[in-house]
């Protein structure tokens, strides 16, 4: 009987999927590397809350690593590293390979925008001696999560004379911040009886920005509003009409923090999708002379559908690859057709508190490594690219051979969940692509949570993808 059990155990080992050991499969040395890598990630997260700032910080890191600004008509050699900025809100980084682009390029594409609260074109008003901003939320968020938390103001203002002013107010410990107010429980019985989606509406997301009137003896209206504008004019030299040509938004003003007694996780704003952007960026920085040219593209507008000239549906990346191909004497469309891509985007980590929303056999888990999402979309696989079996096999083999922790996952139950990534837009360019990223708890909340070892495994996956010969 014991011999029969041994045969059964052997057969089980040969043909059944093994249970994931997660972080337990890693050595103390590997875990230490993960913790060290995440110190750099935390700095990136704190310095890159919005896309313009993410691009600036990425350029800073890239230049330090020897990247130079791309010149379309210049001939590049293997090992050359270049970056190309799109309107200060997206950036492509390329490392020229030994074979250039003739066998296609390897792409890792992440987005650097996150859900937030944008200002309306005419935002500032006064009501009952309070100054407030009218806002329009950006991306898929739960509105109530953005009430009664400290917010900071970030963005860019272009004045009438064309001068550009970058704004950042509310992050420093000794600096004032802003807030969306909420109704006290004693008066909120009617509010509490409403469905969550109606208890707090978009037009309720008014941001409190001042309460003291401008110091004058003149009997004028809207003196609190005037005082706010006077403060902004003194610091930034802007007028109220300059809001019409501004990109300003409110984001959480708190910095990221280690989570848990064991400090094994990171909590912060904007993990989706900077938690994939940073590992992909660092993979570009660290790879030296790959076989194929490797491109990391950090794009904008994913949270609102990837439209616009800085989003993934723009032709910017396509034209960049065409320029790379041209320098090798190759046709751009042929290079794209032979290219491969890891769509570097997150997935929802299984949360035991809300287990009913997940199908546990096809969910991703914190500390189990990077998650491959063969398809996203919603319902009957609408709005997805659905990676081929051949490409799934190739990526799976790469991860296994290099001892990179990985798992597969869907975004919740079939008729409950669903979501989109940029993978479908890459696939539409005739590129083999699959989503690979980090599982996230509390996704799209002002404070999301990820595992440090998962972040490090993402870096290892992107680096291995770039550095491998296949």
How would you describe the overall organization of this protein?
This protein is of the alpha/beta class and 470 residues long. It is built from twelve helices and 21 strands. The relative contact order is 0.17. It is globular, with a radius of gyration of 24 Å. 29% of the residues lie in helices and 23% in strands. The chain starts with a helix and ends with a helix. The protein has helices at 2-15, 28-47, 51-64, 189-192, 196-199, 223-236, 271-286, 316-327, 332-337, 389-401, 423-427, 452-467, and strands spanning 68-69, 81-86, 90-95, 106-111, 116-127, 130-138, 151-158, 164-169, 179-180, 207-210, 246-252, 257-259, 265-268, 294-299, 340-343, 347-348, 370-373, 406-408, 432-437, 439-440, 448-451. Helix 7 crosses helix 12 (452-467).
Query: Residue-averaged pLDDT, rounded?
Result: 94
Helix % is 25-40%
Largest β sheet strand count, sense and barrel closure = 9 strands, mixed
Number of helices: 12
Structural class: alpha/beta
Question: How would you sum up the global shape?
Answer: globular
Instruction: Estimate the strand proportion.
Output: 15-25%
The stretches of 5 or more residues where confidence is low (pLDDT under 50) are: none
Count of strand segments: 21
Oligomeric state of the chains present here: single chain
- The rounded Rg comes to 24 Å
**Spatial separation of the terminal alpha carbons:** 46 Å
Strand adjacency order, main sheet: 1-2-3-14-4-15-19-17-18
Quick tags:
470 residues, globular, nine-stranded mixed sheet, seven-stranded antiparallel sheet, alpha/beta, 12 helices, 21 strands, single chain
């Amino acid at each position: 009987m014991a011999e029969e059990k041994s045969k059964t155990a052997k057969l089980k080992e040969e043909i059944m999927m093994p249970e994931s050991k997660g972080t337990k499969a890693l050595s103390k040395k590997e875990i230490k590397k993960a913790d060290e890598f995440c110190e750099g990630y935390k700095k990136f997260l704190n310095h890159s809350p919005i896309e313009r700032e993410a691009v600036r910080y990425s350029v800073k890191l890239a230049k330090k690593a020897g990247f130079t600004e791309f010149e379309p008509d210049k001939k590049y050699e293997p090992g050359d590293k270049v970056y190309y900025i799109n309107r200060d809100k997206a950036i492509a980084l390329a490392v020229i390979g030994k074979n250039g682009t003739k066998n296609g390029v390897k792409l890792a594409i992440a987005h650097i925008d996150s859900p937030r609260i944008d200002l309306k074109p005419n935002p500032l008003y006064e009501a009952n001696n309070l100054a407030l901003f009218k806002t329009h939320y950006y991306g898929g968020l739960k509105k109530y999560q953005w009430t009664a938390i400290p917010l900071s103001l970030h963005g860019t203002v272009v004045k009438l004379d064309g001068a550009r002013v970058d704004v950042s107010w509310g992050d420093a410990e000794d600096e004032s911040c802003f807030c969306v107010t909420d109704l006290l429980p004693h008066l909120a019985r009617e509010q509490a009886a409403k469905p969550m989606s109606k208890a707090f509406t978009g037009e309720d997301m008014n941001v409190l920005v001042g309460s003291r009137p401008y110091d004058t003896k003149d009997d004028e209206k809207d003196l609190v509003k005037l005082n706010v504008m006077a403060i902004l004019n003194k610091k930034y030299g802007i007028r109220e009409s300059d809001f019409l040509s501004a990109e300003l938004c409110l984001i959480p003003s708190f910095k990221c923090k280690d989570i848990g007694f064991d400090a094994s996780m990171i909590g912060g704003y904007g993990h989706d999708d900077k938690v994939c952007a940073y590992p992909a960026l660092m993979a570009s920085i660290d790879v030296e002379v790959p076989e194929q040219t490797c491109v990391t593209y950090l794009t904008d507008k994913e949270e609102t559908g990837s439209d616009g000239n800085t989003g993934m549906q723009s032709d910017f990346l396509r034209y960049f690859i065409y320029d790379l191909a041209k320098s090798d004497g190759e046709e751009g469309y042929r290079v794209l057709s032979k290219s491969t891509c890891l769509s570097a985007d997150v997935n929802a980590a299984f949360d035991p508190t809300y287990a009913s929303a997940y199908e546990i056999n096809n969910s991703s888990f914190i500390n189990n490594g990077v998650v491959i999402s063969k398809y996203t979309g919603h319902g009957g696989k609408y709005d997805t690219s659905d990676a081929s079996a051949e490409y799934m096999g190739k990526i799976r083999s790469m991860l296994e051979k290099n001892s990179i922790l990985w798992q597969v996952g869907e975004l919740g139950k079939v008729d409950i969940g669903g979501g989109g990534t940029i993978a479908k837009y890459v696939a539409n360019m005739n590129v083999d692509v699959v989503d690979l990223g980090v599982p996230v708890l509390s996704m799209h909340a002002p404070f999301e949570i990820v595992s440090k070892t998962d972040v490090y495994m993402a870096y290892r996956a992107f680096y291995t993808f770039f550095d491998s010969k296949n």
